[in-house]
User: Fold this.
Amino acid sequence: LMFLGTPVEIQRPRGVPLTKKQFYEESKPFTCLDGSRTIPFDRVNDDYCDCKDGSDEPGTAACPNGSFHCTNAGYRPMFIPSSRINDGICDCCDTTDEYNSGAKCENTCKELGRKEREVLQKMAEITKEGFLLKQQLIEEAKKGQQEKQSKVTDMQENKKQLDEKVEALRTVKETAEQPEKEAKERHLKAWEEQKAAIRLEKDKAKMAETFLELDDNEDGFVSVSELQSHAELDPDADGTLTEIEAQGLMGGAEQVDTSTFESVWPKIKDKYHSEVSREEEPAPVETPPDEVKEPVVDNDSEPYPEDDISEEEDEDDEDEDDYHEDDDKVSAQPTIKTPEKTHEDEEAMPPYDADTQALIDAAQKARDDFEEAEKALREMDDQIRNIEKELSFDFGPDAEFTYLYSQCYELTTSEYIYRLCPFNRVSQKPKYGGSETNLGTWGSWSGPENNKYLLMKYEQGTGCWQGPNRSTTVKLTCGKETVVTSTSEPSRCEYLMEFTTPAVCQEPANIDPSPHDHVEL
Amino acid sequence: MAASCDSLLPLVLLLCLSAQAVDRSNFKTCDQSAFCKRQRELKPGQSPYRALLDTLELSNSRLSLQLINDNNKVRLLLELYRLQGNMTRVKINELKPLKPRYEVPDVLLSHPITEALSVVAQDENSLVVSLGGKDQRLILSAQPFRLDIVEGSQVLMSLNSRGLLAFEHLRTRKDTKSESEQATGQENVEQQTDEDGQIKEDDDKPGMWEETFKSHTDSKPNGPTSISLDFSLPGVEHVYGIPEHADTLKLKNTDGSDPYRLYNLDVFQYELHNPMALYGAVPVLISHSTDRTMGIFWLNAAETWVDISSNTAGKVRVISSEAPQTDVRWMSESGIIDVFIMLGPKPADVFTQYASLTGTQSFPPLSALAYHQCRWNYNDQEDVKTVDQGFDEHDIPYDFIWLDIEHADGKRYFTWDPSKFPQPKEMLQGLMDKRRKLVAIVDPHIKVDSGYKIHNEIRSKNFYVKNKDGGDYEGWCWPGNAGYPDFTNPEMRTWWASQFAYDQYEGSMENQYIWNDMNEPSVFNGPEVTMHKDALHGVWEHRDVHNLYGLYVQKATADGLIQRSEGVQRPFVLTRAFFAGSQRYGAVWTGDNAAEWGHLKISIPMCLSLGLVGISFCGADVGGFFKHPSAELLVRWYQAGAYQPFFRAHAHIDTPRREPWLFGPENTALIREAIRQRYALLPYWYQLFYNAHRTGQPVMRPLWVEYPDDFATFSIEDEYLIGKDLLVHPVTDEGATGVTAYLPGKGEVWYDVHTFQKHDGDQSLYIPVTMSSIPVFQRGGSIICRKDRVRRSSSCMENDPYTLYVALGSQGSAEGELYIDDFHTFSFEEAKQFVHRRLSFSANTLSSRNLAPDSQFSTASWIEKIVIFGGSQPSSATLKSADGTESALEFEFDSTLAVLTLRKPGVNAAADWTIVLR
Assistant:
């Protein structure tokens, strides 16, 4: 309509919108719109505020709470606070607010209208295309969601089977492990018995050997004096084995024969040093091996890395210590003082017999099968959890934001590369080297109440010096493409990112793009 | 902003991390300042000085005689002047110094006008000099030397009565002294002079010839040069002034603590309630008692400490049998003793006297009294535009938006960051289209960079301050390595001023004004974050001129702004450092405060103290610079700031944004209302600044200034007067539900400006408050003009009509003034283009009378409404215009509050008129 003719201004007091024209009738006294009082009509727009609600001065700046209506033919009408009337600043594009200030205003409504229409048109195109894209996104998301849902359902079905399988295999495993355990115990027991018999044999042989050694004069008897040559047998540890002591060891006898020696042997065997091996006996080692090593560890010439090195060395030492300790424990167990011999004496356990081995193999297989199934179950659980997590995100009323999940979008500025990974995190990395800074991890949708999906909030990023943790607000606008269009830091450590996506495009209103003009005609 | 940490070297950063508040160890105590320690070790006793009466010389207006120190035979020259307006000047210098000692230039307006002195009596040990009117006399006692100023039989003030006159004379450096001699420091060195007999040198004490503080060594080539003098004030319990300190209005007794220190310093995160030095120094102390108000102006720009000792401190007044007395002692590191004693007797007289010496407050353009929006930093042009629009969207007025150091290209002042502010003129034009303005920062430290024009010119003209070895002095500041122009050099100042010309300062426009920060000067790596004392300004050491540096920076900048408009436009320059006389060049603010309730509270005594010593244009960063204010604190600060002279919100770069609309709609509305109250009262503020400019009377006044006989007002610092007609008691407590305001004046009445409720004077009144309350009272007997049509900026309100608020006193009369001019040029002064009217109401007649018949100015403003408090209902109201025409005015009367509103007199604000109520 606007473009066809010249606008016709309908007579009414200055600053009054058409919709309120009926309240301002020149022939009648004026009643304030809040009804508070009635004044002669010539006091409307007389530059003095009579009504508390400011309604008597729609065209002057007299009332602090008044508002002025500009028609703005060709553009959009608007209200401005009446304090902007004749303040020397052109607010209404039709210049009507500056009728008495000397401000040189030009009517820019047509130009603004044209520009606005262009912008609206462009926006409308974008919105239209964006909205179509959004429909696809919704379709895909729904499809995806269904797929995922059914996948989860399938997986949960599979999981049930897996559960059962795991349970079944557990039973198999336990069943196989019982005979295995028994067979192994049997085998071990037999070996223990065998070892005891061998030890007894050896003891006897040693006793005989010792008897022969002690019987220096080879008269078939060991005498007190013969025994006395072994000072190590001294029971009171005063360094000498007296005659009485030796006699005591021999049960009061002057001499004993081989059979009587059997009762002497237990008393002396722990202390007895074989004459044959005496000289070969190694001298007791007084310094533990790690202490010997110490000077090698210390390296004074390199003060800086010393800590690191010695720490590592310490660890090594500890390992070695552990090793030695274990060794000592092993060697401390036998009652005989020569550990090397013990090893020789106690041979390794003989291999399992074929039957036992078969049982073990069977059990091992059952175990492997069980563990494999259990692992598969765990993996299945993880997969289900991931999909459920994804499904639990709020991807918008129609899941239109689903496609952003697990994607990242970058924007490079003069200094930084900004990276937005929706529903995950925002980060910033210097363009020319340097480490990445976390500008916030996914928090929530935080747009206004009527559409919370217009803003995303990422919180708890890297802390700022003397300041808060970094956070980012992502502002979403309708666009054909999914792009980060700008980033800024309006306040220290609070970032603002602008992001276009078809997902926020609203269904284009199917109306005239210049809806404001008709009011004035 | 202060030498805060984040921009410093990593090394400094480490030091800063631990600092929650001020790091006191960065700043000297008296004990760490060698001369203060030496001086303070001298205890009251008999003065070694003797006046040589036979050396008396008396000309018409000057009396001089010699003083001799009987301990070391050094002679001093005492000069006494009687100055017009009831002042006495006392000057003491060495009779024959080895070389001239520094005398502070450029602070006094001109040579003060002297009046005739006459000796009225003399005997062998004393001299009585008449000081003119009211039988005021000065009694000079010869041995021990002492001065007493008396009126009749009453002693008003005594000098050297405690024998603390100490004058370290210049002496030759004994380069031959061996290390061991210096170390023991016990050997007396004797020096022959031709006629004075033997001069016995003082024993050398540590720090006389070299002084080290932290890592900085002061080479002290002139050795000890400090001076000291004591003043006793009988009958006085209350002394004020000597700003700048973050302390109470009434000065505290300094026995047992450090003296108040005057040494301009950039103090990072300053603490409240201590005598540490801050950014500025005005060596003026005001004493007040119910009998008399006096002032002491100690004209010395070196590091100065002031000890206050009162015999009534901490005692309950009524119990003390002793007559109250306050003793004051001044100690300065170099220069001479040059003291102006202002004898009052009323507060207004002292202000007039001081103004006659150092000048009055510059008259700012009206917009500078409006609201300022600042932040370190508005990031770029887009940000400036967005904030500007934000004010319009939220219908909040503002006049100035400010740009801190980040706007310049690499902190090279006079330039613009090419990526953030590529089109400064476009930005300034955008603001001009909204009738708004911008302030950009220009600090005095100049980046040492051969690619920087300003630096190259200063270097080639040899305008930089020199280090002790004669090279250009360099220190660290915001741009890194920086030079410091020698602002004490008048040629340098002329050149600096020329740099503000539109063709020199690229991108600048007439709606851009200037902010001088860091002009103490701040030197991040210097001793006490300032310049080395042995740096050289021509022949003078930095030691001599330190406290003057900031004044000169602001002066040169203000001169530049005047010159760029060829003398037409009034300048607006904000400074952080200041000295006596800085009031002539613009506004000051209280530096880098913090978003804490205590800082909000202290802003009142800090600005009151400045007002008492001539600097009326004072404000504190609204919201607090460091830290993040709660919404409640921010709102309360806006409410308080709206009623303080310089009204600017400011914030540190590391704080979250805090534009007024970022705290929810309720708080936005509260802040909007506070700012709107400021704008409505701008005519009153403007008139008070005009008055301050003309007369030297402060704009923001302690209650005792207007109620000098009311002892109850003497320590009040949580409320104050704007002019004499508005009493403000801002809410400065968190969660406050009420305040207790003291309304002074027996037989007077006060009206709550919001509720119109009437209260009697001479009472403490409990006022319940809500978040929207700003307790403000109009004095009964006053008329205040407001512009109630608040618009986007003060310029937009230029031609708006006035509403007269007539608050009738108990006698049913009231008086007020209205001042109007073009609001931004010097025409008011140079062409007498202004309107100044007396408004008075008595005997049911309100009239407007011309106070300046020889001035002329036409205004479009008219009288929109007259609101009369405390009257009765008339049967008619008749307006008589100048041409004799009469017309009936409509009116409304609210009988419950006794408020009469006269509808639309419509007369021009510059016209004569009378309204008669019957």
Residues 367 and 794 of chain B are 6 Å apart (CA to CA). Residues 5-19, 176-196 of chain B have pLDDT under 50 and may be disordered.
